[in-house]
Amino acid sequence: MLNPVSGPSSPMSSSRRGLQDKIQCDSCQLEWNMRFKIILAICEALNFLHTELNKPISHLPLTPENILLDKNLVPKLSDIGLSDLFEGLSPEGTDYDPEITRYKAPEYINRYTISFQSNIYSLGLLIMDIATGEKNRSHARQTMDNSHFANVRQMWTDEYIASKYTSLGVTCIGQLKVCLQIALWCVEDKRKDRPSIREIVNTLNNPYIGRALNKPGVSPILLLSVQPQRLCFPLPPTRLISRLLCLTNNKDECIAFRLLTDNPGRYHTKLPLCGIVLPKCTYTINVVVHEQTKQLPSNSDKFLTLMCTTTHEKELKNLDADSAAVLFENPDHEVQGMMLPVVCDPPEETISDQIIASKNRQVVLSVDVHPISQVLSMDVHPKEPWILTTNQRGTLCIWNYQNKQTVKSFEVSPGEPVYSAKFIEAKHWLVTGDGDGYIHVYSYDTMEEVKNFRAHENNIMSLVLHRSFPLVLSASDDHLIKLWNWAKHWECTRTFRGHYNRVTQVMFRPGYTYCFASASLDGRVKIWDINSENCIHTLNAHPDGLLCLHYLKDKQLYYARYFLVVGSSDGVAKVWDWNDDEPNYVGTLEGHTNRLTAFCWDTKHEVLVTGSLDGTMQIWKPTSTRYRLENIIRLNLGAVTALAYTQESTRVVVGCQQGIAMVEIDYV
């Protein structure tokens, strides 16, 4: 007969077992809460020594021996002020326990340097010991680096923590993960890579700490991988200065983010900023600060708050970036967050921060804001380091992208938009069209007008030069395309009819001498031969109208194939294989939330760059079956209106409402 107390079917047994589990769970929670309070109290005590005294104090290497606990387990720091006795002296011969060596920073061991960042290194090891309950007892420094740190990095994964502490709640698990991340950050070999004590305390006191989704595989702090962990701007910024913030989503679901600040007036970037990071994609934010009239202190206590939450595909329908803020007001969404320190450092210490690794690719971004805003078109000179821009106010500008200086600037059509302009290098000319349908030709040596003539009835929307012949195509609001021979005094040799709405762009097909394509607001793409007025092919590409097109070169084993990509008013791009007699549909690129305005093909890395009125440029990598969105870059310079590629510097030039950005894409 089974014992009624211990029998498996006894309600009392089940009740007692549940009570025992609860006692064990409560005990685990209490133990971790005690550890976390000790970690936080040590950090706050060190913060007091580093930042709140008239004469800040740098502690000798923090060790368990100089941290005392009172009867309530509140830690007290001892041996304060001893660093002054050893400043500049070797502490060799002092009667220390050899095990204390493991808490010493590399610069303390090698050069006997005592500094705030040396304290941070010791603090990291203490946090590691307290959080894990493990202590490496090896006296050999090399062994300690290779085993203890590696053990924490490799062994203490999300899955290991979840299995080891099954009775800990979500908040405690989140706190543990944050403490481990801080500890590993503190033990960086280079002092400048370690956090300040203020950053540590603010992170631990972050109200969003531990608010992670209760499921395996969640990032230690955020659902997103964030690089860098702090933004460093050169001091003093005498102009608009930008730094990248990369948010990488390695998951299979969409993640919405929100970037906040308590000091929006400091930033050229409009904050708060919301957006959505698609699965297996990186969202790069160009954080721009205003020009400063005075130097800011290098330890300025400034932070950006980053919040993120998961979302579902059905919630993304008709949802633009700004509407993502609604997700954070929904109580059903779990929200995570972290504080990103914004610090000011000398320029030489911030150069490396411009390179942000993302998967197997780096994005190097530098922004030089040109005084001409509302850029509508750009062209790159084939030999000189020049970019030709047009804008909404009818101004043409030649800008040197090497020395960041304006070469020449003048008005073509005051107060009226100029949509296109091109260099004719063979004659040292530039050609442009105005809103009245006139084509103007100027010498860019003297800036004198060589010729002007009426070409169309309305706005000239697009101009393109033939690579080999002295020919220029013009496209207009009047639905017409015309071919001009500039070697024959700009004689019109052909007029192409067939579109029944504005012709938005024309482009000669690479590798084919006589072929070109046109896109129109009538939603059609047409393929033409310059020797005939009749259209060769017509494709009904999109009912909402087409705004831009571009040819892409896909290198095959023995030959090159060209694809045609067209962009529409709803932000969708479609790719067509037009190498055979009939076009073959390849795929659709969906990522932008507003009109597509421009394409660019990076010939070095074979990636497609798209620009949109939503203020982002996106990088697409062709695969064997489709185009994969790799990176969304928000430049925060307004709508992206034009793209160009510089062969010499292998950089993409981005024209925006508020200036020009130079973007370099490179592999790691």
Structure summary:
Residues 1-209 form the Protein kinase domain. 17% of the residues lie in helices and 37% in strands.
Q: How would you name the CATH homologous superfamily of the largest domain?
A: YVTN repeat-like/Quinoprotein amine dehydrogenase
Q: Indicate the structural class.
A: alpha+beta
- The Rg value, from CA coordinates, equals 31 Å
What does the largest sheet look like? 7 strands, mixed
Amount of helix: 10-25%
The tally of domains stands at 3
Strand content: 35-45%
Annotated CATH topology of the largest domain: Methylamine Dehydrogenase, Chain H
Terminal-residue CA separation: 71 Å
- Contiguous low-pLDDT stretches (5 residues minimum) are 1-23, 83-96, 137-146, 210-221, 297-301, 347-361
Can you give the mean pLDDT? 77
State the strand order across the main sheet.
3-5-8-36-35-34-33
Q: What is the helix tally? A: 8
Total DSSP E strands? 39
Any idea what the shape is?
Answer: elongated
CATH class of the largest domain: Mainly Beta
Name given to the CATH architecture of the largest domain: 7 Propeller
Domain MSP: 223-345
Pfam family, one: Pkinase
Main location: membrane
WD repeats: 453-485, 496-538, 589-621
Structural features, described:
With about 675 residues, the protein is of the alpha+beta class. It folds into three domains: about 20-135 and about 145-205, Transferase(Phosphotransferase) domain 1 (Transferase(Phosphotransferase), domain 1, Orthogonal Bundle), CATH 1.10.510; about 225-290 and about 300-345, Immunoglobulin-like (Sandwich); about 375-600, YVTN repeat-like/Quinoprotein amine dehydrogenase (Methylamine Dehydrogenase, Chain H, 7 Propeller). It has a seven-stranded mixed β-sheet with strand order 3-5-8-36-35-34-33, with no helix packed on it. About 40% of the residues are buried. One of its GO terms (cellular component) is cytoplasmic vesicle membrane.
